[in-house]
Amino acid sequence: MSKRTTTIKRKTKETDIQLTLNLDGTGVAKVKTPVPFLSHMLEAFSKHSGFDLTVNAKGDTHVDDHHTVEDIGICLGEALNKALGDKAGISRYGFFFVPLDEALVRCVVDLSGRNYINYALDLNVKKRIGTFDTELVEDFFKAATDNGKFNLHLEKIHGRNSHHIVEAAFKSFARALKMAVAHDAKVKGVPSTKGNL
């Protein structure tokens, strides 16, 4: 089995990010970002996916958190796509429901090589979680799918508390990806009749 670890570096006038992802890790997170709530979500993502994740990010958060959040999403998507290589032998699909108190979120992923997002978390109940703008959750996941080249369906089934909904979303995303990237001994080559993903 080839090593499924990669490092992505992204430096612009707005952000400076280095992200390392190991799909066959043990859920160890070393996350430093100037956006505390996103750091918390990335740590939860690492723990529940079993992926080792290191993120060192700086950004122009004196302007807004948007550039930093979106660019970390870009880096995570690129790292996932690169670490998967040709995707031979993986399960490809993953799904998971995660409850968190009154919140319930469903995530379904397809590592198809095509980017698409159906984002239905409905966070209008609260515009901010602490200082974090809840609009940025969609921006993060869209950046990840666009650059990771995968399908993502993320839906709130129930929920009132925005923190619970978003945390359940990151955890369900983590668990669905864990399932999708897993090696399946019955899969010979790439899991597609096309012959590639």
Describe the structure.
The protein contains four helices and ten strands; from the N terminus they run βββαβαβββββαβα. With 197 residues, it is α+β, with helices and mostly antiparallel strands. It has a single domain, classed as Ribosomal Protein S5, domain 2 (2-Layer Sandwich), CATH 3.30.230. Strands 1-2-4-3 form a four-stranded mixed sheet, with helices on one face. Strands 5-6-10-7 form a four-stranded mixed sheet. Helix 1 runs parallel beside helix 4 and helix 2 runs parallel beside helix 3. The longest helix has 20 residues. 43% of the residues are buried.
Strand order of the largest sheet: 1-2-4-3
Q: Identify the CATH homologous superfamily.
A: Imidazole glycerol phosphate dehydratase, domain 1
Q: Summarize the main sheet.
A: 4 strands, mixed
- Spans of at least 5 consecutive residues whose pLDDT stays below 50 are none
What number is the mean pLDDT? 95
**Helical residues, percent:** 25-40%
Q: SSE string, helix = H, strand = E?
A: EEEHEHEEEEEHEH
Overall outline: globular
Per the CATH scheme, the topology name is: Ribosomal Protein S5, domain 2
In angstroms, what is the radius of gyration? 16 Å
Backbone structural class = alpha+beta
The CATH architecture category equals 2-Layer Sandwich
CATH class reads Alpha Beta
For this structure, the quaternary state is single chain
Overall tally of structural domains: 1
Tell me the number of strands: 10
| Distance between the amino and carboxyl termini | 19 Å
- How large is the count of helical segments? 4
